[in-house]
Amino acid sequence: MAGERFPVLFPGRPFPFPFVRERFLPIAMTAKSILLVEDDPALRLLTARALRAHGYDVGTASTGAEMWVALESGAVDLIVLDIMLPGQTGIELFRRLRRDSDVPVIFISARGSEDDRVLGLELGADDYLPKPFGTRELIARIGAVLRRGQAEDERPARGRDLEFDGWRLSLGRHELRSPQGALVDLTGAEFDLLATFLNQPQRVIGRQRLIELSRTRQSDSSDRSIDVLVSRLRRKLTGPSGNAPIVTVRGVGYMFTAEVARH
């Protein structure tokens, strides 16, 4: 089962299964809960079985409407969300979800193009996995995302505010304020990337290392993905001088040039 590869999703096929919450194995009370939103019945069943076999408490849904019903019935620790769903797409569902929740989300999609990966990164998804994929890879990525979230929750409360050039990033409130005190809108990916820079100021960081250090790490992300994200972050940090404290080190990566103070 661990090495089995899944079939590719075919849009337009019927979706006969309603929302289900089956249990094939006994689940401990401390098991992490996963909501799998996938409209392909065979893929949904195979994936859910594999996750349960690895100790996760799994609920499934085939549409966005079923996803909302599942979330209303109880909190989950992570959502595996297919992009190509009937009705509302996974992208639309993710945008609505982020208005009220920061639950980790891993996108899966038969459309494995670089543009889709870039979009997922920019929106702030925690990972992106193209189909077809093996169960071992999905389980490894779920584990990595959950561990990153747990590590963040266990960080000490002190030193949660980082300040540079009059800007202030609050790790606790998950917000950035300009030197004028205005709240700056950041996607989840932009926030995590900025926090990564602030934790390693005045040091050159390679593109792949930035992806690894950021909470939005994706093993199949490209240099273009991180370049796009850095460009968006630069625009939001540009001050009256027209410069942002992120410089490109040709052939290597990027460096955050400002001094950083912790409060």
UniProtKB/TrEMBL annotation:
Ranges where the Response regulatory domain occurs: 33-146
Main location: cytoplasm
PROSITE patterns for this protein: OMPR_PHOB, RESPONSE_REGULATORY
Record keywords, A-Z: Cytoplasm, DNA-binding, Phosphoprotein, Transcription, Transcription regulation, Two-component regulatory system
Localization (cell): Cytoplasm
Organism superkingdom: Bacteria
Cell cycle found in the keyword field: no
Domain OmpR/PhoB-type: residue ranges: 159-258
InterPro entries found in the cross-reference section: CheY-like_superfamily, OmpR/PhoB-type_DNA-bd, Sig_transdc_resp-reg_C-effctor, Sig_transdc_resp-reg_receiver, WalR-like, WH-like_DNA-bd_sf
Gene Ontology molecular function terms on file: phosphorelay response regulator activity; transcription cis-regulatory region binding
DNA-binding region, residue intervals: 159-258
Modified residues (4-aspartylphosphate): D82
One GO biological process term: regulation of DNA-templated transcription
One CC-aspect GO term: protein-DNA complex
Record's keyword annotation contains Ubl conjugation: no
UniProt name for this protein: Regulatory protein VirG
